[in-house]
Amino acid sequence: VSEIDDTCSLWVVAVPSNAVREVAERLPSGEIRVLVASKGLEVTTAKRMSEVISEARPGAIVAALSGPNLALEVANGVPSATVVASANQEFTEWVRDRLMSRSLRVYSSRDVIGVELGGALKNVLAIGAGMSDGLAFGDNTKAAFLCRGLSEMTSLGVQLGADASTFVGLSGIGDLIATAASRLSRNYRVGRALGEGIELDRALNEVGQVAEGVPTSFAAVELANRTASEVPLMRAIHDCIRGTIRPIEAVGMLMERAPRAEF
Amino acid sequence: VSEIDDTCSLWVVAVPSNAVREVAERLPSGEIRVLVASKGLEVTTAKRMSEVISEARPGAIVAALSGPNLALEVANGVPSATVVASANQEFTEWVRDRLMSRSLRVYSSRDVIGVELGGALKNVLAIGAGMSDGLAFGDNTKAAFLCRGLSEMTSLGVQLGADASTFVGLSGIGDLIATAASRLSRNYRVGRALGEGIELDRALNEVGQVAEGVPTSFAAVELANRTASEVPLMRAIHDCIRGTIRPIEAVGMLMERAPRAEF
């Protein structure tokens, strides 16, 4: 990729994850450069977005962008940090140096799997954090939930080939904190509505935009099944989305497990 | 400690950290059992609370309690989780089983150093999170700050003998999230006031209670100096507390470092 330079074109894919395959199929063939900012997993295949693009365009060099980046804040120049990851270090650093600005710090990573899984799975957990607030639980409850959620995200990610350290970074716990704390997050708002006892369809309608965590919860449970990973929180959130249990039952279930060591 | 049973007495020390040594010196001598819930470092020695108690009462068996436990919420029965740690596993489990209740889940740990450092250092970082909000930055900024803060806390802790994994748990990132997100946190509120340009004395006065992060910032910088650990965020917070730089300068400084890999 020695021909990568300032004049080469870069395709940025930032559509909802369920549209990424279709969009990728419309891109030119050959050795194109793609940066994917969509956060999710394909619901039918449980594949990451860079995998979907590479399948649709086998010649493409693909990097993923992920981090605690509420779009409205980035657009308004609020100081933010993010991570760009690809298997091609030269391309990663090229993207990094071009996105870096006075208000956006960009870090590079080689762990595409971890960076993409963090961005996808935190949307599922943000629904759970919203549920906790919707049930009028406290900051203690939400913090404990996010901790155990981080642990689930990490163990599932490691089973799938990610580095554990990535989940402690911006694209893991960083994005989880921003998404789970913010009224701007659609996933958090859908979860909050569910916690308040509102039906899923009405909750999605009220948010009025895509809540990626809903379809991603199906893919997350599928990945957990394939790798025999224990993900009780993600499973409980998924069950609440499917309507097979109520949020209050999920919390009771999780608080009543037997005493044990933390690690 | 085979004589530990339901009838033995337990001393619970939960005073501000600057009073722990004095309180410990008033405890009986001999093989007493102590649970310390104070979160901080002794400002003159940079010692952890269990170290201070063991110095004052060499025969004592000491466990530390730490986690995302805003007191008002625990008192109100809000679902919460916490960690108890000591070098004596039998004692740890004895304490754990007695504190466990319908609304409080208690995990056990052997990493006293990590559990105590998490509880102490998060108060310093919560001041920084408050500053970020006081400067009217966004959720993106605060999430990025907490991520890098977690990384500082972990590397300093590991230098001091803690397990890295403890900082990803309830007493590390868990407590950091709860403290940095909550209007109930005194440290967060002091930081917020500093970010708004209020002087430290007036900020402390307005909060009207002890903000442990202020004295702990001195001890944290001392520990970083001793171990040659890089803690730019904690140092910047400490400098804002001492009044040698202003919060807005600290943020500018941290955003302008050279591009690099995340890990």
Number of helices of chain A: 12
Tally of strands of chain A:
5
Radius of gyration of chain A, in angstroms, nearest whole number: 18 Å
Cross-sheet strand order for the largest sheet of chain A: 1-2-3-4-5
Note the run of SSEs of chain A as H and E: EHEHEHEHEHHHHHHHH
Strand residues, percent of chain A:
5-15%
Describe this protein's structure:
2 copies of one chain form a homodimer. Chain A is of the alpha/beta class. In chain A, 53% of the residues lie in helices and 10% in strands. In chain A, strands 1-2-3-4-5 form a 5-stranded mixed beta sheet, sandwiched between helices. Chains A and B meet through strand 4, helix 4, strand 5, helix 6 and helix 7 of A and strand 4, strand 5, helix 6 and helix 7 of B.
List the keywords.
homodimer, 263 residues, alpha/beta, five-stranded mixed beta sheet, 12 helices, 10% strand, disordered N terminus
TL;DR of this structure?
2 copies of one chain form a homodimer. In chain A, 53% of the residues lie in helices and 10% in strands.
Give the SSE map:
The structure is a homodimer.
Chain A: E1 11-13, H1 20-25, E2 33-36, H2 49-56, E3 61-66, H3 71-75, E4 80-85, H4 89-99, E5 104-109, H5 112-134, H6 139-159, H7 170-181, H8 186-195, H9 200-207, H10 213-227, H11 232-242, H12 247-255
Parallel strand pairs in A: 1-2, 2-3, 4-5
Antiparallel strand pairs in A: 3-4
Helix pairs in contact in A: 5-6, 5-7, 5-8, 5-10, 5-11, 8-9, 10-11
